[in-house]
Amino acid sequence: MGYDIERFVGYVNEGLLCSICRGVLEDPLQAPCEHAFCSACIHAWLVHHSNCPEDRQTVDVSSLRPLYRYMKNDLNRLQLHCKNKESGCQMVCSLESIDRHEKECEYSLIPCFNIGCTVQVERRNLDGHLAVCEYRSHECPNGCGYFILSAEDIQHNCVAELKTELELLRTEMICRVEEAKHEMESRLDSQRRHMVQKESVLLNQIEELKSQMSRLMSDVCSLMAAERQHRQELEQAELEKREL
């Protein structure tokens, strides 16, 4: 929806008006046929139509483009009144800077900061409202450290509040200790399983080494027996040689 043309000071070129809402262009987009629209207006139009509302030429969302730079510059230079004019604001500024001004305008309605309060006041009156707001809070004068609402002053009991907080802290501490205990038990179980697996692997390796050692000893015994047999054969051959 475009800006109300009544807010503007002086003449506004027809080309800077939205072809749908007839307001001054807000966040403008341009169709291939060069007709311009507010972004919200043309998107709402194209939900139910597929053409330009001015000349009925085919238009889709993908064909929309930003406004030409010279038109955008002309639009930004337009002068208009603050939306809070009826509340007393006399500011007149360019369209380019109007949003920045209205966010800081002393006549803008803003919500009360206090939790639970639904009142909206002008920014310039906020401090006065906060001073009397029934939802305002202040630190307990007895020194317990709690911030209390004015309406709760009579019901506030420092000892009871501190006991409640202490119980909450105690409960939280117990929960944290239990969580730490469970985490440590989980880690120990994981390490225990890892050690058992590692022990099993080492035992298998030891058995394999024993088997290899047994085979090696058997091979050594076989070699020694063969050597004795060979020596005996040499001695027998030497005897036969001597007899000859």
Would you write up a description of this structure?
The chain is mostly helical. It has a domain at 5-95: Zinc/RING finger domain, C3HC4 (zinc finger) (Herpes Virus-1, 2-Layer Sandwich), CATH 3.30.40. The chain has 5 helices and 9 strands. The strands form 4 sheets. The chain has a 3-stranded antiparallel beta sheet with strand order 2-1-3. Strands 4-5 form a two-stranded antiparallel sheet. The chain has a two-stranded antiparallel ribbon with strand order 6-7. Strand 1 (28-30) and strand 2 form a beta hairpin. It starts with 27 loop residues before the first strand and ends with a helix.
Question: How do the helices and strands line up, and which of them pair or pack?
Answer:
Layout: E1 28-30, E2 36-38, H1 39-48, E3 65-66, H2 69-77, E4 79-81, E5 92-94, H3 95-104, E6 109-111, E7 120-122, H4 126-132, E8 137-139, E9 147-149, H5 158-243
Antiparallel strand pairs: 1-2, 1-3, 4-5, 6-7, 8-9
- Helical run tally: 5
What value does the average pLDDT take? 87
The CATH class assignment of the domain at 5-95 is Alpha Beta
Distance between the termini: 133 Å
CATH homology-level superfamily of the domain at 5-95: Zinc/RING finger domain, C3HC4 (zinc finger)
What is the fold named in CATH at topology level of the domain at 5-95?
Herpes Virus-1
Instruction: Spell out the helices and strands N to C.
Output: EEHEHEEHEEHEEH
Which spans have pLDDT < 50 for at least 5 consecutive residues?
Answer: none
Largest beta sheet: strand ordering: 2-1-3
Look at the helices and sheets and give the structural class.
mainly alpha
> Can you tell me the CATH architecture of the domain at 5-95?
2-Layer Sandwich
Q: Describe the biggest sheet?
A: 3 strands, antiparallel
Q: What does the overall shape look like?
A: elongated
Could you tell me the strand content as a percent range? 5-15%
Strand segment tally: 9
Radius of gyration: 46 Å
- Percent range for helical residues? 40-55%
GO biological process, one term: regulation of canonical NF-kappaB signal transduction
Keywords: Coiled coil, Ligase, Metal-binding, Zinc, Zinc-finger
Protein name: RNF41 ligase
GO molecular function: ligase activity; zinc ion binding
